[in-house]
Amino acid sequence: MKAFASDLDRTLIYSKKMIGMYQAHSPYEPIEWLDGEEISYISLKTKQALKEINDTMLFIPVTTRTIQQYERIRLFQEDIIPEYAITSNGGNILKNGTVLREWYNHIQEELHSSVPLSEMIREIEGFSDNQWIKKVRQADNLFIYLIIDRSLFSQDLLETLSAWSSNLGWQISLQGRKLYFVPHIINKWKAVKFLCDTLNIDYVYTAGDSLLDYDLIVNGNDGISPLHGEVLEHYSLLNSTKTFGMNASEEIVERIQKQTLTIT
């Protein structure tokens, strides 16, 4: 069996800001609302291709979003309804919308190898130089993300925080105004690999744009990043699209459709 395991935000779906940065070449539609406002969109070409992919193989959304944030995306609640979805950066697997207890229990056991969430929050809130931090949030009791002021946040600080986090068993990823702190054990690819082993998936296409997607991209049988991906700033030799933004999402799914025809 084949599968397509893909990150969502900035890979398959896009915010208004991202659409503004990289002009879309084809029509798109809203798929997520918050407080009555449209906040996420998908290309109509990508949506149609995803429907066809979901009919011919296992499509697995893989996201750093919390369960609640994932469920806000109407596309995956109404139009394309995957049997499995991976949320919380790999910390949770949903089967038909319900948390898979076997994986959840495994993650809870493995978390003992990292500094606890509550201690990390105390450390972060205690930073002496914290003017760049606007909000501190925890996600599904698994990891942390900060809403930051990018104008006060430097590359040197990012590198310092990366080294500090790594020593505590955590990793970081900067995505727009959000800075993620995630335990090393919580990993998108590990969750995908669990499903591959459980469901006898023997070929998996993967896609993602952030540093948190690196393992997902390199361990898939055929992995790719959109050309605007953060991960390419650190690993420039990864397979990438030729286009940016929403156009890259179309390139990714069309590429999979073409490749599928050649794999038996």
Automatic annotation (TrEMBL):
Keywords from the UniProt entry: Hydrolase
Naturally occurring in which organism (per UniProt): Metabacillus lacus
Keyword Cell inner membrane recorded: no
GO molecular function, one term: hydrolase activity
Gene3D superfamilies: HAD superfamily/HAD-like
Keyword hit for Nucleotide-binding: no
Listed name of the protein: Hydrolase (Had superfamily)
Domain Sucrose phosphatase-like: 3-224
